[in-house]
Amino acid sequence: MNLVSAHIPAGWSAALWLTLAALCVLMARKATWRMLKSPANLNVFLGATVIVLGLWLIKTGIRPGLNFHLLGATALTLMFRPWFAILAIGLIVAGITLVNGQFDAYPANLLMMGVLPVSVSWTIYRYVDGRLPNHFFIYIFLNCFFGAGITIALVGIASTVFAATAGIYTLNYLLDNYLPFYLLMAWAEAFITGMIMTVLVVYRPDWVATFDDSRYLQSK
Q: Fewer CB in 10 Å around end: N or C, the chain?
């Protein structure tokens, strides 16, 4: 979903911007900014952001605001942890917003397609990391494949609820013409995220902040 400014009810705009402002304050206080002082880390972060931006630009849509594209949020979360994953998606949404001029829709788009999927991905990772054995295949299949699939499915459901509640489209229309296709995208998101993360943890594990060779491989 890529909302346009006309889709945001007048009474919601201020609340959405205030929520985003509070999130920015938390990010400024809690994010480990020294990580980006390393040129190598900064290059990986910017490179990943550009790649995910490319995924977002490969999209299709049925009506204004009802677009379909891969998210890449789970991969960003596993690579950089939640705050920098949200920052990366914030930059992506900002770039797209500058092009299409839908500035009033920026907070809703970032919260829906950035904060929500990153939060879900991080919750799944923390649960798996804390409750299950440290095993390479558990990391790949649950955090990457399953995590990405369930994340984009929940984003589709949340987008449907938001659009129906805001009166953008009727719930029946969304259930018939939007949500089913979003749920189908979960397979593609899971497969692509799983493949990318498998390659990264095998060949460049230092690029994945949540993966530790000593825990997942060397101790087995």
A: C
